[in-house]
């Protein structure tokens, strides 16, 4: 039998939900999915920003991109998002758990709120949203292609960061290990779970950490990227390309992995 290479990287016609999709890495992945013919739902805490990004993606790629705002730091927000998606779709081919929060403060004054906010958003929401969407994921998994869950971690969950973001690094390490737990349980149901651990990308979150004040345009990203072996920060093509691979036939045998997407930072540490 000849191998089927014709649509090896295709995600056309698949239904995807990307949390934290209004900006940053979430918007990059959602845009890549839409450009490749997927039907995309995005969620973020701020409804106006989420609506605007959905319109921008739909217009840019002639695709369907639907805004479903939700505050995933609270369990009620997680459950609301799952209910509203179920009203639109009987199945979900791809879930990208990308919504995240960070908190930076000196070790002597780091507050409990800096743990609770970050852990609730970065870890608790990943588990409970995946749990709530299992009916839609299982329906998709009963089709020709397995369903996918892609959790967005960080290289800060692999090695210690230079910033004093204690709860963020711990939360991303937890996301990585939670991904392995989910893979061990769900692979037999044809729901494939993996994590992407990005390094530096030109996002609002990193911009605030490196002193750019949240700006992503007109700032010196070359200075940030110059610290990595690849000499640059990541691009939308980099992260969308990996997410598309993991969601396609090409990535179907990759299960329970944490893939560093960092231009070689972890490898050279």
Describe this structure in words.
The structure is a single chain. A 7-stranded parallel beta sheet has the order 3-2-1-4-5-6-7, with helices on both faces. The chain is 44% helix and 13% strand. The longest helix is centred in the middle third of the chain and has 21 residues, at 112-132. It has helices at 24-35, 47-61, 75-88, 112-132, 134-141, 166-186, 204-209, 221-225, 236-247, 265-268, and strands at 15-19, 39-43, 65-67, 94-97, 147-152, 191-198, 258-261. Helix 3 runs parallel beside helix 4 (112-132). The chain is globular and about 55 Å long. The chain is an alpha/beta fold and 269 residues long.
> Largest sheet, described in full?
7 strands, parallel
CATH topology: Rossmann fold
- Estimate the strand proportion: 5-15%
**Which blocks of ≥5 consecutive residues have pLDDT under 50?**
none
How many β-strand stretches? 7
Count of alpha/pi helices: 10
Overall helicity: 40-55%
CATH architecture: 3-Layer(aba) Sandwich
SS-derived structural category? alpha/beta
The first-level CATH class is given as: Alpha Beta
Mean pLDDT, to the nearest integer, reads 95
Number of domains: 1
What letter string, H or E per element, gives the SSE order? EHEHEHEHHEHEHHHEH
Please give the alpha-carbon distance between the first and last residues. 44 Å
CATH superfamily: NAD(P)-binding Rossmann-like Domain
Radius of gyration from CA coordinates? 18 Å
- Which strand order do you get reading across the main beta sheet? 3-2-1-4-5-6-7
Can you tag this structure with a few keywords?
269 residues, alpha/beta, Rossmann fold, 7-stranded parallel sheet, 7 strands, globular
């Amino acid at each position: 039998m000849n191998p089927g290479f014709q649509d090896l990287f295709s995600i056309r016609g698949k239904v995807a939900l990307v949390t934290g999709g209004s900006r940053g890495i979430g918007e990059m992945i959602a845009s890549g999915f839409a450009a490749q013919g997927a039907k995309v739902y995005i969620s973020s805490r701020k409804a106006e920003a989420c609506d605007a990004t959905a319109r921008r993606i739909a217009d840019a790629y002639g695709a369907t991109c639907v805004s479903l705002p939700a505050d995933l730091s609270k369990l009620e927000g997680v459950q609301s998002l799952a209910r509203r998606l179920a009203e639109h779709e009987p199945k979900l081919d791809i879930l990208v758990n990308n919504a995240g929060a960070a908190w930076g403060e000196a070790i002597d004054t780091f507050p409990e709120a800096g743990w609770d906010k970050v852990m609730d958003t970065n870890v608790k929401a990943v588990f409970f949203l995946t749990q709530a969407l299992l009916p839609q994921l299982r329906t998709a998994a009963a089709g020709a292609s397995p369903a996918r869950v892609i959790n967005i971690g960080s290289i800060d969950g692999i090695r210690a960061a230079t910033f004093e973001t204690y709860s963020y690094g711990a939360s991303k390490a937890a996301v990585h290990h939670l991904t392995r737990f989910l893979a061990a349980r769900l692979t037999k149901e044809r729901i494939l779970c993996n994590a992407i651990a990005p390094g530096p990308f030109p996002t609002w979150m990193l911009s605030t950490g490196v002193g750019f004040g949240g700006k992503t345009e007109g700032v010196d990203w070359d200075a940030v990227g110059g610290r990595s072996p690849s000499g640059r920060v990541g691009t939308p093509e980099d992260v969308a390309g990996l997410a598309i691979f993991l969601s396609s036939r090409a990535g179907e045998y990759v299960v329970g992995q944490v893939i560093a997407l960092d231009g070689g930072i972890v490898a050279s540490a």
